[in-house]
Amino acid sequence: MKKIGLILIFIFLTGLFSGIFFSTNISNESNQTLSSFLMSGMSPTDSGFFEIFAGSFLSNALLFLIMMPAAFTAILRPVPFLILWYKSFAIGFCSGLVYINYEENAFAISLIKLFPQNLFFIPASILFTAAIIKFHSIDRRDIGLKLGRNLNISASAVIFAAAVILLTIGAAAEAGFHQVAL
Protein backbone atom coordinates (compact mmCIF):
# COMPACT_ATOMS: atom_id res chain seq x y z
CA MET A 1 0.00 0.00 0.00
CA LYS A 2 2.96 2.34 0.60
CA LYS A 3 4.06 2.00 -3.02
CA ILE A 4 0.57 2.75 -4.27
CA GLY A 5 0.34 5.79 -2.00
CA LEU A 6 3.67 7.16 -3.18
CA ILE A 7 2.75 6.64 -6.82
CA LEU A 8 -0.62 8.36 -6.32
CA ILE A 9 0.97 11.32 -4.52
CA PHE A 10 3.50 11.60 -7.36
CA ILE A 11 0.67 11.59 -9.93
CA PHE A 12 -1.20 14.19 -7.90
CA LEU A 13 1.82 16.49 -7.63
CA THR A 14 2.59 16.07 -11.33
CA GLY A 15 -0.95 17.12 -12.22
CA LEU A 16 -0.88 20.01 -9.76
CA PHE A 17 2.34 21.46 -11.11
CA SER A 18 1.25 20.81 -14.70
CA GLY A 19 -1.88 22.85 -14.06
CA ILE A 20 0.09 25.69 -12.50
CA PHE A 21 2.60 25.74 -15.37
CA PHE A 22 -0.17 25.57 -17.96
CA SER A 23 -2.06 28.48 -16.39
CA THR A 24 1.07 30.62 -16.32
CA ASN A 25 1.95 29.89 -19.96
CA ILE A 26 -1.35 30.63 -21.69
CA SER A 27 -1.87 33.93 -23.47
CA ASN A 28 -2.88 36.98 -21.47
CA GLU A 29 -6.29 37.23 -23.18
CA SER A 30 -7.12 33.59 -22.53
CA ASN A 31 -5.85 33.93 -18.98
CA GLN A 32 -8.16 36.86 -18.24
CA THR A 33 -11.15 35.21 -19.92
CA LEU A 34 -10.72 31.96 -18.01
CA SER A 35 -10.10 33.86 -14.79
CA SER A 36 -13.36 35.78 -15.20
CA PHE A 37 -15.21 32.47 -15.72
CA LEU A 38 -13.56 31.06 -12.61
CA MET A 39 -14.45 34.06 -10.48
CA SER A 40 -18.04 34.15 -11.75
CA GLY A 41 -18.36 30.54 -10.59
CA MET A 42 -16.98 31.48 -7.17
CA SER A 43 -19.24 34.46 -6.61
CA PRO A 44 -22.05 34.06 -4.08
CA THR A 45 -25.37 33.07 -5.61
CA ASP A 46 -28.96 32.78 -4.49
CA SER A 47 -28.61 29.00 -4.39
CA GLY A 48 -29.08 27.47 -1.00
CA PHE A 49 -26.71 25.30 0.95
CA PHE A 50 -28.36 22.05 -0.15
CA GLU A 51 -28.28 22.93 -3.88
CA ILE A 52 -24.57 23.76 -3.77
CA PHE A 53 -23.86 20.70 -1.60
CA ALA A 54 -25.75 18.40 -3.99
CA GLY A 55 -24.04 19.86 -7.06
CA SER A 56 -20.59 19.56 -5.52
CA PHE A 57 -21.22 16.06 -4.19
CA LEU A 58 -22.67 14.79 -7.47
CA SER A 59 -19.91 16.27 -9.65
CA ASN A 60 -17.22 14.66 -7.51
CA ALA A 61 -19.15 11.41 -7.08
CA LEU A 62 -19.46 11.22 -10.87
CA LEU A 63 -15.67 11.09 -11.11
CA PHE A 64 -15.67 8.29 -8.54
CA LEU A 65 -18.33 6.40 -10.52
CA ILE A 66 -16.25 6.73 -13.67
CA MET A 67 -13.37 5.12 -11.74
CA MET A 68 -15.44 2.15 -10.54
CA PRO A 69 -15.24 -0.07 -13.67
CA ALA A 70 -11.45 -0.05 -13.30
CA ALA A 71 -11.86 -2.21 -10.18
CA PHE A 72 -13.22 -5.03 -12.32
CA THR A 73 -11.40 -4.83 -15.66
CA ALA A 74 -7.71 -4.64 -16.42
CA ILE A 75 -8.22 -2.63 -19.57
CA LEU A 76 -9.65 0.31 -17.59
CA ARG A 77 -7.00 0.21 -14.88
CA PRO A 78 -5.35 3.53 -15.99
CA VAL A 79 -8.65 5.44 -15.62
CA PRO A 80 -8.33 6.19 -11.86
CA PHE A 81 -4.80 7.49 -12.40
CA LEU A 82 -5.97 9.72 -15.25
CA ILE A 83 -8.88 11.08 -13.22
CA LEU A 84 -6.60 11.79 -10.26
CA TRP A 85 -4.23 13.62 -12.60
CA TYR A 86 -7.15 15.54 -14.14
CA LYS A 87 -8.46 16.59 -10.73
CA SER A 88 -5.05 17.76 -9.55
CA PHE A 89 -4.45 19.55 -12.87
CA ALA A 90 -7.74 21.42 -12.42
CA ILE A 91 -6.78 22.48 -8.88
CA GLY A 92 -3.37 23.68 -10.07
CA PHE A 93 -4.85 25.46 -13.07
CA CYS A 94 -7.44 27.31 -10.95
CA SER A 95 -4.83 28.22 -8.36
CA GLY A 96 -2.52 29.54 -11.06
CA LEU A 97 -5.28 31.67 -12.56
CA VAL A 98 -6.11 33.14 -9.18
CA TYR A 99 -2.51 33.96 -8.34
CA ILE A 100 -1.82 35.55 -11.74
CA ASN A 101 -4.95 37.68 -12.07
CA TYR A 102 -5.80 38.54 -8.47
CA GLU A 103 -2.41 39.11 -6.88
CA GLU A 104 -3.71 41.41 -4.14
CA ASN A 105 -6.45 39.00 -3.02
CA ALA A 106 -4.96 35.69 -4.15
CA PHE A 107 -4.28 34.39 -0.66
CA ALA A 108 -7.78 35.27 0.61
CA ILE A 109 -9.47 33.82 -2.47
CA SER A 110 -7.47 30.60 -2.19
CA LEU A 111 -8.01 30.32 1.54
CA ILE A 112 -11.78 30.83 1.32
CA LYS A 113 -12.80 29.49 -2.10
CA LEU A 114 -10.24 26.84 -3.12
CA PHE A 115 -8.62 25.41 -0.02
CA PRO A 116 -11.49 24.27 2.29
CA GLN A 117 -13.17 21.76 -0.02
CA ASN A 118 -9.93 20.54 -1.58
CA LEU A 119 -8.59 19.79 1.86
CA PHE A 120 -11.10 16.91 1.78
CA PHE A 121 -11.48 16.24 -1.97
CA ILE A 122 -7.76 15.59 -2.53
CA PRO A 123 -7.40 12.85 0.12
CA ALA A 124 -10.77 11.42 -0.97
CA SER A 125 -9.56 11.12 -4.57
CA ILE A 126 -6.27 9.56 -3.53
CA LEU A 127 -7.99 7.12 -1.15
CA PHE A 128 -10.62 6.16 -3.70
CA THR A 129 -7.98 5.51 -6.36
CA ALA A 130 -5.95 3.45 -3.88
CA ALA A 131 -9.02 1.42 -2.93
CA ILE A 132 -9.80 0.67 -6.56
CA ILE A 133 -6.22 -0.44 -7.19
CA LYS A 134 -6.23 -2.56 -4.03
CA PHE A 135 -9.58 -4.13 -4.94
CA HIS A 136 -8.40 -4.78 -8.49
CA SER A 137 -5.34 -6.64 -7.22
CA ILE A 138 -7.48 -9.24 -5.41
CA ASP A 139 -7.71 -12.58 -7.17
CA ARG A 140 -11.47 -13.09 -7.28
CA ARG A 141 -11.17 -16.86 -7.70
CA ASP A 142 -9.75 -17.10 -4.20
CA ILE A 143 -12.45 -15.02 -2.50
CA GLY A 144 -13.89 -17.05 0.32
CA LEU A 145 -11.08 -19.59 0.22
CA LYS A 146 -8.44 -17.62 2.10
CA LEU A 147 -8.90 -15.33 5.04
CA GLY A 148 -6.25 -12.93 3.75
CA ARG A 149 -8.23 -12.17 0.60
CA ASN A 150 -11.32 -11.35 2.63
CA LEU A 151 -9.25 -8.95 4.71
CA ASN A 152 -8.23 -7.19 1.50
CA ILE A 153 -11.87 -6.80 0.54
CA SER A 154 -12.77 -5.38 3.94
CA ALA A 155 -9.75 -3.04 3.79
CA SER A 156 -10.94 -1.79 0.40
CA ALA A 157 -14.44 -1.27 1.82
CA VAL A 158 -13.04 0.77 4.72
CA ILE A 159 -10.99 2.89 2.30
CA PHE A 160 -14.06 3.38 0.06
CA ALA A 161 -16.11 4.45 3.09
CA ALA A 162 -13.41 6.90 4.23
CA ALA A 163 -13.28 8.39 0.72
CA VAL A 164 -17.07 8.85 0.64
CA ILE A 165 -17.02 10.49 4.09
CA LEU A 166 -14.26 12.87 2.95
CA LEU A 167 -16.23 13.58 -0.22
CA THR A 168 -19.31 14.45 1.83
CA ILE A 169 -17.36 16.72 4.18
CA GLY A 170 -15.68 18.40 1.21
CA ALA A 171 -19.03 19.06 -0.48
CA ALA A 172 -20.36 20.53 2.78
CA ALA A 173 -17.27 22.73 3.08
CA GLU A 174 -17.70 23.94 -0.50
CA ALA A 175 -21.38 24.71 0.09
CA GLY A 176 -20.61 26.50 3.35
CA PHE A 177 -17.76 28.62 2.00
CA HIS A 178 -19.49 29.36 -1.32
CA GLN A 179 -21.73 31.95 0.28
CA VAL A 180 -18.78 33.87 1.76
CA ALA A 181 -18.28 37.15 -0.09
CA LEU A 182 -14.77 38.37 -0.71
Question: Would you spell out the secondary-structure blueprint of this structure?
Answer:
Layout lengths: L1 H24 L2 H15 L6 H19 L11 H23 L4 H31 L10 H32 L4
Helix pairs in contact: 1-4, 1-5, 2-4, 3-6, 4-5, 5-6
> Per the principal axes of the C-alpha atoms, what is the gross shape?
globular
Sequence of secondary-structure elements: HHHHHH
Helicity, as a percent range: over 70%
Q: Please give the radius of gyration in angstroms.
A: 18 Å
Number of strands: 0
Major sheet characteristics: none
Stretches with pLDDT under 50, minimum 5 residues: none
Question: Strand share of the residues?
Answer: under 5%
Q: Helical element count? A: 6
Distance between the termini: 41 Å
Oligomer: single chain
Structural class: mainly alpha
Mean pLDDT: 81
